[in-house]
């Protein structure tokens, strides 16, 4: 994995890219959202918000690693059937509070170019699950619930949409949001190794496990197109969030708590 600075050093708020990822035996895509540039010269505070894939395979060693990181709570975006099928493993030994807010849009059968199909899926999350997404942001705005981890199954689609909303609310540029989304591709092979048997059992086909499978894609244009659609539809990300019930006060609290100069 390439190593590079993503933010200038400001009050110790600097991150090297390889430090963003939390190395775990049982999860492939857990990483810190801290260090990203936002607003006018600010950066996201380190070790406050983490995104990831499902924690149900965590090893006892992973539990200790997450304790060392300081994660106290989590938001589980998986559907009830996923939770019932896979459970949560050892994560309960780490977190004191879990918010289960499943994203359950009505899915259609569109086919075609992969990034377009994923954009349609992300549009459904945004159109059909606004209150769940905003509820997760309200949770993250409360300091007693941080440091926090939010996750779905692969840590890409549902987690990616929530990450995009959070980073946009904090003042991140589209370039930063898209780059963070695309980083999931770096975890693809490790995720396939961990989840292969589960995916075979769930889908009954090998196609989903191919490295070039659309289901595992994290193309930058997918998230860029989603952000373009969101603004074209609602005027701005803030309009969307406020329309779904996230107050200006809560957005301001997110920024004041999670952005440092």
Give a topology summary:
Layout: H1 17-20, E1 31-32, E2 37-38, E3 42-44, E4 49-52, H2 60-69, E5 73-76, H3 80-86, E6 97-100, H4 114-128, H5 130-140, E7 148-151, H6 158-170, H7 174-182, H8 188-203, H9 220-234, H10 237-243, H11 248-258, E8 259-260
Parallel strand pairs: 4-7, 5-6, 5-7
Antiparallel strand pairs: 1-4, 2-3, 3-8
Q: Can you put this structure into words, describing what you see?
A:
This protein is of the alpha/beta class. The chain is 45% helix and 10% strand. The chain contains eleven helices and eight strands. The strands form two sheets. The chain has a five-stranded mixed sheet, covered by helices on one side. A three-stranded antiparallel sheet has the order 2-3-8. Helix 6 (158-170) packs antiparallel against helix 7. The radius of gyration is 17 Å and the shape is globular. The two termini are 28 Å apart.
The 3D shape can be described as: globular
With strands numbered from the N-terminus, the spatial order across the biggest sheet is 1-4-7-5-6
Number of helices: 11
Order of helices and strands: HEEEEHEHEHHEHHHHHHE
Largest sheet: 5 strands, mixed
Radius of gyration: 17 Å
End-to-end separation: 28 Å
Low-pLDDT segments: 1-14
Helix content range of the residues, please? 40-55%
């Amino acid at each position: 994995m390439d190593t590079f600075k993503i933010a200038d050093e400001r009050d110790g708020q600097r991150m090297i890219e390889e430090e963003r990822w939390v190395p775990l035996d049982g999860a492939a895509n857990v990483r810190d959202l801290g260090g990203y540039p936002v607003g006018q010269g600010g950066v996201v505070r380190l070790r406050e918000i983490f995104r990831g894939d499902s924690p149900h395979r965590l090893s006892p060693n992973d539990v200790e690693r997450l304790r060392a990181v300081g994660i106290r709570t989590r938001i589980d975006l998986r559907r009830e059937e996923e939770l019932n099928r896979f459970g949560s493993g050892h994560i309960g030994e780490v977190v004191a509070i879990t918010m289960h807010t499943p994203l359950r849009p009505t899915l259609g059968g569109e086919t075609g170019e992969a990034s377009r199909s994923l954009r349609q899926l992300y549009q459904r999350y945004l159109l059909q699950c606004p209150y769940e997404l905003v509820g997760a942001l309200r949770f993250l705005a409360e300091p007693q619930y941080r440091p926090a981890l939010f996750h779905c199954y692969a840590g890409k689609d549902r987690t990616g949409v929530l990450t995009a909303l959070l980073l946009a609310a904090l003042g991140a540029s589209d370039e930063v949001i898209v780059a963070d989304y695309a980083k999931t591709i770096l975890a693809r092979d490790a995720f396939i190794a961990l989840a292969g048997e589960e995916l075979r059992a769930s889908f009954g086909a090998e196609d989903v496990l191919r490295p070039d499978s659309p289901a595992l894609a994290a193309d930058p244009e997918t998230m860029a197109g989603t952000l373009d659609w969101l603004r074209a539809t609602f005027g701005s990300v803030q309009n969307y969030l406020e329309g779904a019930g996230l107050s200006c006060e809560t957005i301001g609290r997110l920024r004041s708590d999670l952005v440092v100069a």
